[in-house]
């Protein structure tokens, strides 16, 4: 049975394993497991984005180690309809596809719903937020990329703040607004003030000597802004 996406109303820190040490992946994730509810899985195919990461086998292996975490699979791939069922079977609790990568986003959302997992949609920095208007009401989460997808460790794009504000106005209170790219204690207050409530952090968590403390620092930074 899939884990459920938490209800909105909190700030969730979602470490991305893209920046973890794959030679000691289970140990690295274990360092943050008590600090988080959601683990972000960046799946790349070398086609939609210029990088390759991992497939369903790794997700299945991780699921056995961390049964209670919500596995948030971000499919930065061309063939999301083909591979989404495999990632769900392996243990993904949510599937996020890229608007730019599918021909029929409505059909993609229906497929995810039929898989009985949370549905998310993502857009690249160059895609207008209004492009989401036809489908935004049908997803659980929107993922705003604040860097160009494909590699970790990139700098936060300042225009993402206004894009985040625009998206927040388009979402209901029961939908999440996730931001991925360049999230650290400096950018966190800016993006949470703009409406983000789910923060994907890679190098700012797994690139630190104490990943658990890094999660707490980002969470404290998110609480520091005055709404």
Summary?
With 227 residues, this protein is of the alpha/beta class. Helix content is 31%, strand content 19%.
Please write out the topology:
Layout: E1 12-15, H1 25-30, E2 38-44, H2 56-65, E3 70-76, H3 80-90, E4 94-98, H4 105-114, E5 118-123, E6 141-145, H5 160-170, E7 176-180, H6 188-193, E8 198-201, H7 203-206, H8 211-223
Parallel strand pairs: 1-8, 2-3, 3-4, 4-5, 5-6, 6-7, 7-8
What does this structure look like?
The protein has about 230 residues and is an alpha/beta fold. The mean pLDDT is about 95. About 30% of the residues lie in helices and about 20% in strands. Helix 4 links the parallel strand 4 and strand 5. The chain has one domain (about 10-220): TIM Barrel (Alpha-Beta Barrel), CATH 3.20.20. Helix 2 runs parallel beside helix 3 (about 80-90).
Structure characteristics:
globular
Note the run of SSEs as H and E: EHEHEHEHEEHEHEHH
Helix content: 25-40%
Contiguous runs where pLDDT drops below 50 for at least 5 residues = none
Write down the overall mean pLDDT.
94
Q: SS-based structural class? A: alpha/beta
Q: Looking at the structure, what is the overall shape?
A: globular
Which CATH architecture would you pick?
Answer: Alpha-Beta Barrel
CATH topology-level name: TIM Barrel
| Strand residue percentage | 15-25%
Q: Termini, distance in Å? A: 37 Å
Strand order across the biggest sheet?
1-8-7-6-5-4-3-2
The number of domains is 1
- Main beta-sheet strand count, sense and barrel state: 8 strands, parallel
CATH superfamily: Aldolase class I
């Amino acid at each position: 049975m899939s884990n459920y996406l938490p209800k909105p109303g909190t700030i969730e820190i979602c470490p991305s394993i893209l920046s973890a040490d794959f030679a000691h992946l289970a140990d690295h994730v274990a360092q943050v497991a008590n600090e988080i509810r959601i683990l972000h899985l960046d799946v790349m195919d070398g086609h939609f984005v210029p990088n390759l990461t991992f497939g369903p086998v790794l997700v299945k292996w991780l699921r056995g180690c961390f049964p209670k975490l919500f596995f948030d699979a971000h499919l930065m791939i061309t063939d999301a309809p083909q591979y989404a069922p495999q990632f769900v079977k392996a243990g993904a609790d949510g599937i996020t596809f890229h608007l730019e990568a599918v021909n029929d986003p409505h059909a993609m959302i229906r497929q995810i719903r039929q898989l009985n997992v949370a549905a998310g949609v993502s857009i690249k920095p160059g895609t207008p937020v209004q492009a989401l208007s036809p489908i935004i009401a049908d997803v659980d989460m929107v993922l705003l990329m604040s860097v160009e997808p494909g590699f970790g460790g990139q700098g936060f794009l300042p225009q993402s703040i206004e894009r985040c504000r625009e998206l927040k106005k388009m979402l209901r209170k029961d939908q999440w607004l996730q931001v991925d790219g360049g999230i650290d204690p400096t950018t966190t207050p800016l993006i949470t003030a703009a409406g983000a409530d789910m923060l994907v952090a890679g190098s700012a968590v797994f690139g630190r000597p104490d990943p658990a403390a890094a999660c707490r620092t980002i969470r404290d930074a998110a609480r520091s802004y005055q709404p």
